[in-house]
């Protein structure tokens, strides 16, 4: 399910909707298990408060062409680190995997 205003370049077999809310409803609603949200920034902003968990790759390397960033969950209320992987490096890029839990929705 892809949220877009321009469906002209989408691969066959994809389903297009016009809003994050329509995508959520089409995927089974907010109670559905294991929905994966893969950006961009406006999609994260619209749906983050409804997520129970976030699996995050934190890139420790500065990337010059970056223009959109995921919200800093460490500074948002109701988000706690559930697990944190060891630092890794590949092709000169340092990163680590983290799992966050939304304590407001966990249960």
Low-pLDDT residue spans: none
Total beta-strand segments: 6
Structural class: alpha+beta
Distance between the termini: 27 Å
Main pleated-sheet profile: 4 strands, antiparallel
Rounded to the nearest angstrom, the radius of gyration is: 16 Å
Shape: globular
| Beta-strand share of residues | 25-35%
Chain-averaged pLDDT: 88
Helix content: 10-25%
List the total number of helices: 2
Instruction: Give the H and E element order.
Output: EEHHEEEE
Short description:
The protein has 107 residues and is of the alpha+beta class.
Task: Give a written overview of the molecule.
With 107 residues, this protein is an alpha+beta fold. The protein contains 2 helices and 6 strands, in the order ββααββββ. The protein has helices spanning 20-26, 41-47; strands spanning 2-3, 16-17, 53-59, 79-84, 88-90, 93-102. Strands 3, 4, 5 and 6 form a 4-stranded antiparallel β-sheet that branches. A two-stranded parallel ribbon has the order 1-2. The longest helix has 7 residues, at 20-26. The chain is globular. The two termini are 27 Å apart. The mean pLDDT is 88.
Give the SSE map.
Layout: E1 2-3, E2 16-17, H1 20-26, H2 41-47, E3 53-59, E4 79-84, E5 88-90, E6 93-102
Descriptors:
alpha+beta; single chain; 107 residues; 4-stranded antiparallel β-sheet; 2 helices; 6 strands; two-stranded parallel sheet; globular
């Amino acid at each position: 399910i892809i949220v877009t205003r321009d469906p002209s370049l989408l691969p066959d077999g994809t389903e297009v909707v016009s809003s994050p809310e329509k995508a959520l409803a089409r995927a089974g609603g907010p109670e559905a298990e294991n929905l994966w949200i893969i950006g961009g920034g406006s999609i994260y902003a619209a749906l983050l408060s409804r997520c129970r968990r976030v699996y995050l790759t934190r890139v420790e390397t500065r990337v010059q062409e970056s223009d959109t960033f995921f919200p800093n969950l460490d500074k948002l209320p109701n988000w706690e680190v559930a697990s944190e992987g060891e630092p890794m490096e590949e092709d000169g890029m340092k990163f680590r995997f983290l799992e966050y839990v939304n304590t407001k929705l966990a249960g």
